[in-house]
Specification:
The protein contains seven helices and nine strands, in the order E-E-H-E-H-H-E-H-E-E-E-H-E-H-E-H. The chain has 252 residues and is of the alpha/beta class. It has a domain of 128 residues: 3-Layer(aba) Sandwich (Rossmann fold), CATH 3.40.50. It has a seven-stranded mixed beta sheet, sandwiched between helices. A two-stranded antiparallel ribbon has the order 6-7. Strand 2, helix 1 and strand 3 form a beta-alpha-beta unit. It is globular, with a radius of gyration of 17 Å. The relative contact order is 0.16.
Length: 252
């Protein structure tokens, strides 16, 4: 699918050159790289090479999103992984919400990924359940981003195409089946209160994933878009600890 609309200012992909350890960061459904850029900047300050791609159909106009498939969203992340692999010897993947779901698929496809950090990964979205078999309305009004912190701005769409919701539901539905075949280390990060994706989604993934090294971290003071919320520095610290731990293991 070819996008017809220009990229919204501030929604572009970001890239920070660092050492030979790469961290690939994926935003979520109807989000943009802007929502995870803070995490990318902090990780880059610690020396890592960081790439935050823009998923197809995101950060332009919701009419572009309407014509996208979940395979194209995955391809956007896959292409960014290939780009990062050209200059990095070790790659970690960090994904928020649907980005976490896509990160699972990337780790399933590429067994040499060193580890994944999934932040409020999506397997179910209760507010969308009633739309599963509907063909109307074409567009759904998107509410205020689920962020506990005040005065935080997220670049997102004000409307969501029903077709895109169906694509997200299809992706979430097929994801549990691949969990036993994923074996890289995983850090599951969940907000204690999440009004979009139930925190139990993270628990389910950690319980069923095939990884031997797996842990869960709880964010006490953030809602769904945790990368822009009050515990964002806690996410950064958790990522740094996780990545450094895995790197030191591979050296030993």
């Amino acid at each position: 699918m070819k996008e017809k609309f220009p990229i919204i200012k501030g929604a572009e992909k970001f890239r920070f050159k660092g050492n030979n350890i790469g961290i690939l960061i994926s935003h979520g459904f109807v989000g943009t790289p802007q929502s995870v850029r803070y995490l990318g900047e902090r990780l880059a300050e610690n020396g890592f090479t960081v790439l935050g791609p823009r998923l197809k159909g995101h950060g332009t106009h919701y009419y572009d999103l309407e014509n996208c498939t979940h395979e194209e969203w995955f391809d956007s992340l896959d292409m960014a992984y290939q780009e990062l692999k050209k200059e990095c010897t070790s790659i970690f993947v960090l994904g928020q919400s649907m980005g976490g779901t896509l990160s699972l698929w990337l780790a399933h496809k590429y067994k040499n990924i060193k580890g994944i950090i999934i932040v409020n990964p999506a397997l179910t979205i209760p507010d969308f359940e009633h739309l599963k078999d509907k063909d109307q309305p074409r567009l759904i009004d998107e509410g205020t981003p689920d962020i506990k912190a005040k005065d935080v701005y997220e670049i997102t769409y004000e409307k969501v195409p029903l077709k895109a919701i169906h694509q997200l539901q299809a992706l979430m539905e097929i994801t549990p089946a691949i969990l036993p075949d994923i074996h890289c280390p995983v850090l599951g990060v969940k907000s204690a209160v999440d009004h979009v994706v139930p925190p139990e989604n993270t628990d389910f993934i950690i319980e069923h994933i095939g990884s031997k090294e797996k842990e869960t971290m709880v964010l006490p003071n953030s809602y769904h878009v945790a990368s822009l919320d009050q515990d964002k520095d806690m996410i950064v610290e958790g990522c740094l600890r996780f990545v450094r731990q895995q790197v030191s293991h591979s050296v030993l």
